[in-house]
Write a sequence for this structure.
């Protein structure tokens, strides 16, 4: 995803922003505008964790806010004062997506943007994993997960495949992978260590369907500002709906934003619209039909419609 495209959606020089997990490559630098960095640990701990990886510890930026067990609102000092928040390749690591997005809403001003660059599982080591199911999102949210659970850890380790390696494993390799995944889970259980994994697996369509579920449950006050594809990933932009907007109006705004999307098909033989778009169109049509049926004209013409139905049955 082009950084220029993401940055075109906000005015980083004037607006106040947050960036989650910038590590050593922030999308918005401090020289570009008023931005604050969030991560799950202070810079010193991040440097120790990533010292063995392909990251220069000296290049890791200073962390302004450590987001741990407390809410994001408390983490940033109880301020709902940010115009945008950016997170690149972070959302798939979050144990409770619905809760995480909900906490982000608590620090964005009305109309503020949450900008997320999300890996498309079809082009990552998650290629063979099924997209995350609706019940998984609800389960993680009701349990208020703050760290990956054993199911998320096992699925990541056992089902991942390197894109430049074999997609199918022989019997011995599959058994070794399963036993390795179990060992990692035991380690997490015994030591309570935070095991960083891909908790969630998305395509653009599955992400949209997850957001539709959250909207339907009244959990997230967003509409979709953009959903754009790029090689190996996609840009998801969520606009914070007004705090005072009633829940039914928020749902209507979400559905309207989905209808404006123009997503390509994801699989051969699929319909021209994805499931969430079709659902949005159906619900809008149902709402219009209900409005018509409650109108005076509809009630006055009821005898005529009944007569026409009787004629049709006789034909």
């Amino acid at each position: 995803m082009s950084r220029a495209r993401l940055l075109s959606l906000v005015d980083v020089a004037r607006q106040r922003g947050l960036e989650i997990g910038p590590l050593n490559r922030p999308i918005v630098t401090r020289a570009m505008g008023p931005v604050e960095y969030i991560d799950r640990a202070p810079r010193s701990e991040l440097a120790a964790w990533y010292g063995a990886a392909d990251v220069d510890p000296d290049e890791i930026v200073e962390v302004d806010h450590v987001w741990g067990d407390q809410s994001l609102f408390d983490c940033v000092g109880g301020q709902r004062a940010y115009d945008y928040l950016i997170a690149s390749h972070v959302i798939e690591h979050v144990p409770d997506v619905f809760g995480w997005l909900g906490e982000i809403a608590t620090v964005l001003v009305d109309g503020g943007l949450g900008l997320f660059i999300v890996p498309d599982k079809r082009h990552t080591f998650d290629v063979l994993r099924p997209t995350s199911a609706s019940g998984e999102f609800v389960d993680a949210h009701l349990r208020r997960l703050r760290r990956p659970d054993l199911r998320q850890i096992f699925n990541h380790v056992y089902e991942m495949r390197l894109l430049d390696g074999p997609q199918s494993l022989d019997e011995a390799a599959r058994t070794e992978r399963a036993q390795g995944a179990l060992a990692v889970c035991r380690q997490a259980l015994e030591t309570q260590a935070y095991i960083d994994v891909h908790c969630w697996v998305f395509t653009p369509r599955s992400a949209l369907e997850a957001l539709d579920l959250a909207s339907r449950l009244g959990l997230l006050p967003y509409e979709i500002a953009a959903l754009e594809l790029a090689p190996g990933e996609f840009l998801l932009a969520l606009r914070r709906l007004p705090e005072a907007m009633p829940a039914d109006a928020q749902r209507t705004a979400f559905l309207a934003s989905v209808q404006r999307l123009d997503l390509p098909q994801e699989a051969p033989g699929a319909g021209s619209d994805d499931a969430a778009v079709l659902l949005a169109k159906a619900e809008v049509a149902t709402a219009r039909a209900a409005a018509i049926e409650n109108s005076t004209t509809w009630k006055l013409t009821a005898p005529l419609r009944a007569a026409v139905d009787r004629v049709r049955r006789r034909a």
